[in-house]
Amino acid sequence: MPERLTEMFMDTWTPLIILWITVLPSIYMAPMNQSQVLPSGSSTGLKRLTEEQRVLNRSKRGWVWNQMFVLEEFSGPEPILVGRLHTDLDPGSSKIKYILSGDGAGTIFVINDKTGDIHAMKRLDREEKAEYTLTAQAVDRDTNKPLEPPSEFIIKVQDINDNAPEFVDGPYHAMVPEMSVVGTFVTKVTATDADDPVYGNSAKLVYSILEGQPYFSIEPHTAIIKTALPNMDREAKEEYFVVIQAKDMGGHMGGLSGTTTVTITLTDVNDNPPKFAQSLYHFSVMEDVALGAPIGRVKANDLDIGENAISSYDIIEGDGMDIFQITTDAQTQDGIIRVRKQLDFETKKSYTLKVEAANVHIDPRFMSGGPFKDTATVKIVVEDADEPPVFSSPTYLLEVHENAAINSVIGQVTAHDPDVSSSPIRFSIDRHTDLERQFNINAEDGKITLATPLDRETNMWHNITIVATETRNHSQVSRLPVAIKVLDVNDNAPEFASEHEAFLCENGKPGQVIQIVSAIDKDDPKNGHYFLYSLLPEMVNNPNFTIKKNEDNTLSILAKHSGFSRQKQEVYLLPIIISDSGNPPMSSTSTLTIRVCGCSSDGIVQSCNVEAYVLPIGLSMGALIAILACIILLLVIVVLFVTLRRHKNEPLIIKDDEDVRENIIRYDDEGGGEEDTEAFDIATLQNPDGINGFLPRKDIKPDLQFMPR
Length: 709
Hints:
It is found in: Cell membrane. By secondary structure, the chain is mainly β.
């Protein structure tokens, strides 16, 4: 306790003692300290104004003071004395006048112009301004002439502890994981103090916790907040309100303090396993429920939050593991039980499952606390539903020969009612799948019969739908597709694949292949087609041609001799019999047309026209075309001549707006008497346009004839 009081006394009175020691010597001892150095920036001191000093020697520096100090926030009934200015040039006769200028001169600081005393007129705040730079000068009171050059000095404001610490960034928010060990870093706070951090302990801060213990602690000098208790559980308490205090003066009594709040939130870790709300669940479901439909939900609660509460569900045991499945609802974290396979009340009426919920994200630090999973039992009861008929087979494939008799039975379908009541079944054909009504079905026993003849070559497959309906409940209907394959029988004879026309060169050689022909058969035997070729019995000894069967089921036509001529015979017809290998075999006769043609020396066909009969003298085709062109040209000339001749014989017509009798024709020839009448045609004089013909008058028909040229 004595040490504490001593420290408080020193912190409080030290500034006053320093001020007293600093200021008073400058006031009362100035006359005895003639050689004291002026502050920086001052020039020479005041000089004595006697003529003797001006002549004999330079005067010494006249200002005598030290740096001045004034205590901030000091207030009293009268202005506070800061210091006194004095010069050795002052003989005490009051002829010297002291002048003060600079920061706050005349307002904050006032000088007595006679004594040089400086007083502070206002309360000063170091935090607003820490020092003032002033200029002092001594002048003659009568003439106002300076006795010495002006000199600067500084008045410093001495700090006192008048500012409390402040948390500029407060209030604070921080987070720390739950279940953290003691000493885990939480956050750091910072306070500031406007007082002088260099002088005294006014800005020396110490931190402490006012509220929030015993959960958290703070380091007094660094302000780092840490956990103070182990295993703090978020599920028990998630948020803590901590009050932090910062106190100056090193935390001693009398110091000022400031506070802030820190809201600390515990973040979640996966330290809790999922837990089912109940150990046994009961569900019921109709046997006709759709696949994938949900039948119930189970819930495993987890006290954790976020990803730490995510659980996955699985069926680990039970007699319905292949019938049911369980999925996780991402929004509610429920386990949804769904149907995987079709249920059947008549086969199995109940199921027992064991489901498990396990955390997805596990923290290894808490594995020792036990498995992060839980199990529950689920019992599912299947309820009976009126089901539609069930066919004995999911698909049917029937086969029938294309020559099957009408009303013959092709096959039979069967179905039954799976319900306990076992209703009778009636069968029918969906006529939308049998538009031609080629099949019938017995409504009682399901036998399918043929209604119209079949042809495999027209339609090899028939797909019909059989409808089974319960007689007691017509709404219970089942449908089943039935495929009917038409089997082949040998009912089509083979024939040439295309209409063949062979060409035989006049200069061909014996044994030369004229044409290779192939055959087709609409039937489809199991072992493939095999054709037999032959000539008609009456043409077996054909003197001109023969046939040869090839290994690829084709036929080659060969010439027996050479010397074929178009003049003798242009076209030959060769009938060929084609037979298949069916049972019974089918055959047909096809005729091959062989045309004799003129060929080049290398066997290329050039012409197959009947030129031998049209041009017996051996004219070529080009010559024949030239002759025909000349004949046509002559005919055209004759037609043109006749047309022009007919045009000239048409009668002349006198124009209405012109009368030839009004035309006067002048001749310079002398008259010849009667000879003139014979030399000229009088009609020409009347109508000059009628020189070459005779134009009659309009009213009469002239009987004069014109003279020929």
